Amino acid sequence: MIAYLAADSFLPELKAELKNIRSVHGNLVLTDGPLQSSVWAQHIWLNAKIESFESISQAAKILKSAGKLWSLYSFENHRRAELIQENLPKLRPRILEFLGPLPQDPLGSWTLLDKNTLLYSAETNLPFPNGEIEFHENKEIPPSRAYLKLWELLTVYGVRPEKGQRVVDFGSCPGGWTWVLQQMGCDVVSIDRAPLDTKIAALPRIEFIKTNAFSLKPQDIGVIDWFFSDIICYPEKLLELVRGWQESGLCKNFVCTIKFQGKTDFETLAEFQKLEGAKIQHLYHNKHEVTVWIKTSSP
Fold first, then answer.
1. Which among 186, 237, 243, 298 counts the fewest CB atoms within 10 Å?
2. Closest CA to 189 of 226, 154, 157
3. CA–CA separation, 70 vs 39, rounded Å?
4. Which CATH entry fits the domain spanning 2-131: 3.30.2130, 1.10.3470, 3.40.50, 2.40.50?
C-alpha cells in the first residue's frame, strides 16, 4: 500500500489524479498498487502498513521496531496520538539552509486510523514531517515570500542554473525570484510592467525591462540558458508563452508557476504534462498553483 498526503484544501485534486483508492483518512489517501505519479501529493508514504495495538506503549514499540525517527500526521484521536509520539525518540526541527544539504537520516510517518489501529510507513519520499519544508528565511532583503517556492525547488529538487548563465525572469515584480537568481551568480533579464523593489534593482547583473511579457518575442531577448516565470496569468497564456520559447530554440530549460484562477484548470495542466521532459509538483510553498520545470542537460 502507498499513502499520499495532500496539502490543506487540495484533497479533491489529489483524489482526482489517483487510481486504486482504498480509503481516505483526513488528507491522507491510501491506495493499492504501485507508486503513482502525483502532482498534488505533498508527502508520499512508500510502504504503508496497518497494524492493531492495545496500548500506547505497544503502539510506540511497533513503530520503534520499524524505524528510528517518526513524524505524526494527526487527523483524529489527537491526544492519544500525541501520547504515542511522546514515547518515540524526539524529532528535532528540520530547517534548511538555501542550497544546503537535505537531512540524511530516514524519517517515517504514521497516523491513527482509529484508537487501536496504526497506519505507518518507515519509507517516505521526503525527509520532512508531512512534507513540510521550512527554511531559515531571509527577512531583510526579499520583498515578498514568493522566493521560498524557488528556494524549495532549487534546494530540494536540485533544479539549479549555474553561475554565469543568462536567465530571464518573467513577471518579476517585486523581485524575489530575480534576487534568488542574482544571488546564484546568474545574469538576470528581469521583465515586468511594474518596477522592481529598489533594493533588488540596485544589485549588479540585473537588466530590467519594463514591458508586458506577452508582447516580447523570444528573438527580442535572444539566447538564454533558463526561462523562469512566476507571472500572474491564466494557465493557457503561460502555456502559449512556454511553447513559443520552445519552438524558438533559444531556450531549453524552464521553471514556471502555473497559477489557477478560481477552479483548478485540469485541462491546461494536462497539456503541460505532455511537454517533453516536464515535471510538475505542488510544492509546499505553492498556493493555488503548481510548479513545472523542464531541464535539458545537453547543450
1. 298
2. 226
3. 24
4. 3.30.2130
Residue (of 259, 275, 190, 195) closest to 226 by Cα position: 190
d(CA 263, CA 109): 31
Q: How many residues does the chain have?
A: 299
What is the DSSP track for 113-139? Answer: EETTEEEEES-BSSSSGGG--EE----
**Per-domain residue ranges for the chain?**
2-131, 137-294
Residues 6+ apart with CB under 8 A from 289: 257, 258, 259, 260, 282
Buried b (16+ CB within 10 A) or exposed e, 80-104: bbeebbeebeeeeebebebeeeeee
For 155-278, strand residue ranges (E) read 166-170, 187-192, 206-210, 226-229, 253-259
Question: What CA–CA distance (Å, rounded) separates 94 from 43?
Answer: 15
- First-to-last alpha carbon distance for the chain, in angstroms, is 41
CATH number for the domain running over 137-294: 3.40.50.150
H runs (alpha helix) in 9-130: 11-17, 56-66, 78-86
Angstrom CA distances, 89 to 21, 66, 76, 111, stand at 32, 13, 22, 16
Prediction pTM value: 0.94
Q: pLDDT in tens for each of the 299 residues of the chain? A: 999 999 999 999 999 999 999 999 999 999 999 999 999 999 999 999 999 999 999 999 999 999 999 999 999 999 999 999 999 999 999 999 999 999 999 999 999 999 999 999 999 999 999 999 999 999 999 999 999 999 999 999 999 999 999 999 999 999 999 999 999 999 999 999 999 999 999 999 999 999 999 999 999 999 999 999 999 999 999 999 999 999 999 999 999 999 998 899 999 999 999 999 999 999 999 999 999 999 886 54
My answer on whether omega of the bond before 174 falls inside 30° of 0, hence cis, is yes
